[in-house]
Amino acid sequence: MAPRNTPLKMGTQQIQGLADGIQDTDAATVGQLNAAIAAIGRTPYATDAELTAAISALNISSYAPLASPAFTGNPTAPTASPGDNDTSIATTAFVTAAIAAIPPAWTIVEKTTGQTISLSAVLTDDNDLQFAMEANKTYAIRISLAFSFITGGYQYGITGPSSPTSVRWGTSNAYGLIGSGGTNGQQIVWLTVKIENGANAGNFKVQFCQSSGAAGSITMENGSYLEYREIS
């Protein structure tokens, strides 16, 4: 006979089944264990052979392996924060945002043939140093001018579409004359401009002329250039 306290039983024993949901130290029957396993969506397997057969029956051919998986359809992944630089997956949203953050390239307009003005102190459009501006866009512009002049000195300025929101060079806020000087000789001028164009599209233009149109001439030399880019 087995002792009442911690009995050691041999062979097949039968005990009275307990009510479902009982949680205490009472013994549970095999039937109750199987019922509990079935209740959480798992089929109880009595033998290793049955478990092996069930695993073999699973169709895993449509799943990608962990190493070098080849996905199909439209797989998704979390989008990393802007500027992230590690081995995480770059989603199309991450790539699109990264491309949009790249500043636009500068476009260069170069003068290949010199242009001469004689006996005139009226600002005149340069034939080459200009570009089309869109309405309601902001541009950064860099200008390099090379002048040769005889007697009359030089003047230079800029113009563009009417009613700009802002034209910034130095402390100025307008199109028109920017600088002048010299009598005879050569001069190189470097200038940066920021323009917030208004509702009117049109061409931005560099202008130049003599300081005094009484005599002589001025030439805008080839190699002068401007470069611009849209910044907003």
Task: Provide structural commentary.
The structure is a single chain. Among the domains are: 26-56, no CATH class; 107-230, Jelly Rolls. Helix content is 12%, strand content 33%. It contains three helices and eleven strands, in the order αααβββββββββββ. Strands 1, 2, 4, 6, 8, 10 and 11 form a seven-stranded antiparallel β-sheet that branches. A four-stranded antiparallel β-sheet has the order 3-9-5-7, with no helix packed on it. The longest helix has 10 residues, at 30-39. It is rod-shaped and about 120 Å long. The mean pLDDT is 84.
Given helix and strand content, the structural type is mainly beta
Which stretches are poorly predicted, pLDDT < 50 over at least 5 residues?
none
Shape: rod-shaped
Strand residues, percent: 25-35%
Regarding quaternary structure, how should these chains be classified?
single chain
Overall helicity: 10-25%
Please state the average pLDDT score: 84
Number of helices: 3
Query: What composes the largest sheet?
Result: 7 strands, antiparallel
> N-to-C SSE series?
HHHEEEEEEEEEEE
Q: What is the terminal-to-terminal distance?
A: 94 Å
The Cα radius of gyration reads: 42 Å
CATH architecture of one domain: Sandwich
CATH class of one domain: Mainly Beta
